[in-house]
Amino acid sequence: MASPERERKRKRDAQGQPRPVVPSSSSQSQVIKINRKDVGSHPPIIASIHGVELPTDLTFSAFSKKSKVSKHMSGGTKGEARETEYCLQAQTSRIEYDGRVEGEDGLSYYVGVYDPEKGSVDVYPSPLVHVRRQVRRLKEKEIPEKASTGTLMDSRQALSAAFGNRTSRKALKDEQLNAITSSTLGSTGATSVVSAISSAVDSATALLPTSESLRTGSGNSKYLPPIHADEEGVTVDTVYRIEEMVEKKVLDGCAEGVREWEKSVRAGGEVESTISPHYVTSRIRGVIDSGANVTKRLKILRYIEHMIQFHRLFINSFSNTVYRPKLYDTFVSDDKAITSHLIDTFTDAKNQNKNERQLSKTKLTKLYCWLMILCLKVEEDGRMDLFDLVQDLQIERREVEMAAREIGARVEAFKEGYLKLMGYGKEEAREHKLVALRLPLVFPKNKMLQVRKR
């Protein structure tokens, strides 16, 4: 054993000097921050390629597709969820390469990107796909073989022919004997069938609205009066014409009630409507004081009062149906012409009985649309608050908003300054919506014209 006093041997260089001490890398350790990033719908994809040699100029196309899968919920029940499957695809003149996720191995895969300047690693979750190759010609041969297996109906018929009883075999034989094919028809018969179908389709679709008419609102003729939005020099007041909605003799029938309103207001009294205590009552004095087209606007306002009373009478009746002779006795109007116009315009005969008048869903929507048009004609600037009309009709606000959009009007929220000026809170502000009729009219998109997103 060496003596402790003995001097230790030190390594020296060629000149006999001690070698410099190299600092340990552990002394210069650096803290690296790991950040997990959200990749959204376009994550990086990890491809596993076993036993496949790829061409150097091969380019893969990445795509995703969603599918419904059943999953066990926490409560022990099964529910449906949508999962996204990521795929890779490439091909040459002979070989086709497909990359797909093959089952779940219980592991999660990530791609890390190191940034030496920031000293951080961005980690992205990445799906793992396995790339397989297949000869294109062999794949094309498999397609007609699968198609030749037949449909489910063919399989059932073959099963009945092989193992069915006497009744099922007889039914199958009768079906085969009565089958109509192109060979049984012949060239002349096939041509006549095609021409008959074409003529039937043309006659059946002749009265259907076109796509353009549905976009402009002219296809909604069952709800709306004639629209003059495409005419030259049209204004907000003339896009819907009052004479095409309500006949002159019907409006003249409202003259007696209008004279009573004017007489009461000019005498300094208060005018109140028991039928429409919110909308009509709050606008009588304003229309008279404005001095602009007073008589016509008051007649429209009086007709609106009759429409609200007519709506309330049918809504409160059983199955929205009223007996016509009883309607003339129950409904109080200024003139019988008003009652007849409301019955003919907004009701249908129930079970082909002209005396049984019903307010159907279609006619109810029409009544709301016409009511919105007439209310906007009463307003000077074509703008109004929905709240008063909703209160008088005693229906949900969304039904009146839907009718406003059907006529091409815009439904907007009031500005905060106006709401504060009126002293409305948050709950009250939700019930007050502004309806404005402006050109060009904006109609709701027809659902049949929208392209379904896959």
Automatic annotation (TrEMBL):
A Pfam match: RNA_pol_I_A49
Biased composition annotated in UniProt, kind: Low complexity: 17-31
Gene Ontology MF term list: DNA binding
InterPro entries on file: RNA_pol-assoc_fac_A49-like
GO cellular component terms listed in the entry, alphabetical order: DNA-directed RNA polymerase complex; nucleolus
Main location, first listed in the record: nucleus
Signal sequence, renumbered to the chain: none
A biological process term (GO) from this entry: DNA-templated transcription
Location in or out of the cell: Nucleus, Nucleolus
Domain of life: Eukaryota
Region of interest (Disordered), residue spans: 1-37
Swiss-Prot/TrEMBL keywords: DNA-directed RNA polymerase, Nucleus, Transcription
Family named by the database record: Belongs to the eukaryotic RPA49/POLR1E RNA polymerase subunit family.
PANTHER family reported in the protein's UniProt record: DNA-DIRECTED RNA POLYMERASE I SUBUNIT RPA49
Protein name: DNA-directed RNA polymerase I subunit rpa49
Organism: Orbilia oligospora
Gene this chain is encoded by: RPA49
